[in-house]
Design a protein that fits this description.
- Pfam families: SecG (PF03840).
- The chain has about 120 residues and is an all-alpha fold.
- The protein is built from three helices and no strands.
- The relative contact order is 0.10.
């Protein structure tokens, strides 16, 4: 199952990077006005409006792949067996008895309570 999650994660990352690239390549809506005055975009590889259709459809397909892979990762993330509880509920690891006194943390000389920290006159 770990291999499947890694493959889905790789597909999601590739789809995201491809979407970023395609979105940055696309022209805005105002860029079509330049073609009417001879800016040269009508002589592109896909024709006058072919690149907009191709790029927008490819972006939509990649967005769908990204969305499906996100749902699959969420499903596999929740399908794992639950542990004994929250990480916050587990006790901290104690210092082993074999540790020497120099490695163990020293106890503070004054108590850490708030009342002991108030200076007296």
């Amino acid at each position: 199952m770990n291999v499947i999650v890694n493959v889905i994660l790789a597909v999601q990352m590739l789809a995201a990077l491809a979407m970023i690239g395609l979105i940055l390549i696309q022209h805005g809506k105002g860029a079509d006005m330049g073609a009417a005055f001879g800016s040269g975009s009508s002589g592109s590889l896909f024709g006058a409006s072919g690149s907009a259709n191709f790029l927008s459809r490819t972006t939509a397909v990649l967005a769908a792949v990204f969305f499906v892979s996100t749902l699959a990762l969420a499903y596999f993330g929740n399908a794992r067996p639950a542990s004994s509880g929250s990480v916050l509920e587990t006790p901290a690891a104690a210092v082993p008895a074999s540790a020497s006194a120099s490695e163990a943390p020293a106890a503070p000389a004054t108590p850490a309570s708030g009342a002991a920290q108030i200076p007296t006159k």
